[in-house]
Design a protein that fits this description.
With about 280 residues, this protein is an alpha/beta fold. Helices cover about 40% and strands about 20% of the residues. It folds into two domains: about 200 residues, Vaccinia Virus protein VP39 (Rossmann fold); about 70 residues, Helicase, Ruva Protein, domain 3 (Orthogonal Bundle). Helix 9 crosses helix 12 and helix 11 crosses helix 12.
């Protein structure tokens, strides 16, 4: 049903898809239903939807949420959304870039906030990073993203997908993998598979660290050259060799290990020991 509706809207307005904006509109009813179910929207929720397209998912969100704030970058879609969703009084449409909009201004005093998005592949990581680092008042992010990125987010230590993005997300959230989505679920069809995941914001960060900035710097340096040992990777931090060696000893971590073998708890311990050694 939604496939017919979406195709009709595209045809009605003569809409041309933009490759530059990574536009792929979701048309599969079962995937839409699974996103709605995973997002667990209630009448008390403010929902922030990033990239509403022609409003297929937006319409379903509007029927369940207290209010939906849809952020759309493409100015050609704004009048289409305004017309197609005009029956709803609980929609706020923002023409803007999700990498620049003030989410705190959108959220205001709302207590129950959820983010839902079918993210363009090219901005997936920057948007997730911004949402997590911004310390915004939301309880969950339910997103459809490229399968490869989803696998990196949900990865375990000592796997090829495990890396800095894994640790950034898992520092702030628990991760639920909802389902895989085939290219046939979209128009136009992307060249890769997608995945729906839900990030549930933790009441407090997963690990407590003395210096959050240092913690993430240690993580980034550890994965910059994955095949290097930790002792070689962390040379770029400009820490005295003897002090770095002491930090490894105090943390109980062998410096010949690679970053991909460390758990988030071990990274926390190592960064705290480096902080103490400085």
């Amino acid at each position: 049903m939604n496939e017919i509706i979406t195709r009709n809207i595209v045809k009605k307005y003569g809409f041309k898809f933009s490759k530059g904006l990574g536009q792929n509109f979701l048309i599969d009813d079962t995937v839409l239903e699974d996103i709605i179910q995973a997002a667990d929207i209630s009448p008390e929720d403010l929902v922030i939807e990033i990239g509403p397209g022609v409003g297929t998912l937006t319409k379903l969100l509007l029927k369940k949420a207290k209010k939906v704030v849809a952020v759309e970058l493409d100015d050609k879609l704004i009048p289409i959304l305004g017309e197609e969703l005009k029956e709803f009084g609980n929609l706020e449409l923002i023409h803007g870039d999700a990498l620049k909009v003030d989410f705190n201004e959108i959220i205001g005093e709302e207590k129950s906030v959820k983010v839902v998005a079918n993210l363009p592949y090219y901005v997936t990581t920057p948007i997730i990073s911004r949402l997590l680092k911004g310390d915004y008042n939301f309880s969950s992010i339910t997103i459809m993203i490229q399968k490869e990125v989803a696998e990196r987010i949900a990865a375990k230590p000592s796997t090829k997908d495990y890396g800095a993005l894994t640790l950034l997300v898992q520092y702030h959230c628990s991760v639920d993998v909802i389902r895989k989505v085939s290219p046939e679920a979209f128009i136009p069809q992307p060249k890769v598979e997608s995945m729906v995941i839900r990030l549930n914001k933790l009441p407090a960060p997963r690990v407590e660290v003395a210096d959050v900035e240092l913690f993430f710097k240690v993580i980034r340096e550890s994965f910059n050259m994955r095949r290097k040992t930790l002792s070689n990777s962390l040379k770029n931090m400009k820490v005295d060799k003897d002090k770095l060696q002491k930090a490894f000893e105090d943390a109980g971590i062998d410096p010949v290990r690679r970053g991909e073998t460390l758990s988030i708890q071990e990274f926390a311990k190592l960064s705290d020991c480096i902080k103490s050694a400085l």
